[in-house]
Design goal:
By secondary structure, the chain is mainly beta. It has a single domain, classed as Immunoglobulin-like, CATH 2.60.40. Helices cover 0% and strands 63% of the residues. The chain is built from no helices and seven strands. The strands form two sheets. A four-stranded antiparallel beta sheet has the order 1-2-7-4, with no helix packed on it. A hairpin with a 2-residue loop joins strand 1 and strand 2. The radius of gyration is 12 Å and the shape is globular. The chain starts with a strand and ends with a strand.
Length: 90
């Protein structure tokens, strides 16, 4: 299973691109592909409907721990969790 993510907005803040994604978890772990060459940071996570608070995010990495530029690895979710993820990158 994969996570479903849709872009809410794209903007520029200073010299960084910032994208917001609405993410719905279909499993405990998954990856969001941001479209960036590299993720500089996770600006924020806004929970909408979360059954767990133990969510972990790691930038430029797959859930297996393998480096993958422009991705966000997410673990600790419950299927059906929904949250907004704001990401900065280039």
């Amino acid at each position: 299973m994969a996570f479903t993510s849709t872009v809410q907005f794209k903007t520029v803040y200073g010299n960084h691109r910032v994208h917001s994604f609405m993410v719905t978890a279909d499993a405990a772990t998954g990856t969001v592909v941001t479209g960036f060459e590299s993720v500089f940071g996770i600006v924020g996570i806004v929970p909408y409907s979360m059954a767990t608070s133990a969510v972990k995010l790691k930038s430029n990495t797959l859930t297996s721990g393998t480096a993958a530029a422009g991705t966000i690895a997410i673990t600790g979710c419950t299927s059906g969790d929904q949250f907004e993820l704001v990401i900065a990158g280039k």
